[in-house]
Amino acid sequence: xxxxxxxxxxxxxxxxxxxxxxxxxxxxxxxxxxxxxxxxxxxxxxxxxxxxxxxxxxxxxxxxxxxxxxxxxxxxxxxxxxxxxxxxxxxxxxxxxxxxxxxxxxxxxxxxxxxxxxxx
Length: 120
What we know:
Layout: H1 5-13, H2 16-25, E1 30-31, H3 32-36, H4 43-55, E2 59-64, E3 67-72, H5 75-118
Antiparallel strand pairs: 1-3, 2-3
């Protein structure tokens, strides 16, 4: 069954190791060896993560003489941002309503406290 690009991107981003790799690549291109350094795993395991990211279109790998270099491809992330943007508006509205409610409760508590202080 074919999977849409957004699902493929989310699947690739679901793993913390792959997110850490993308975070490292956000600061610039580097070698596979440099990407693997912070992780306590074998090079074949790192390569599997890189293949998942590459299939999702999130990274591009190339050979530079004997070095294998990787760089981030951010275009699939735009689709994620666009998808999340719709929900951001929803949550902002809910959080705004919650903020108003909490302000009302605080005002009522302060009013009640003031009445008790005045002996009413």
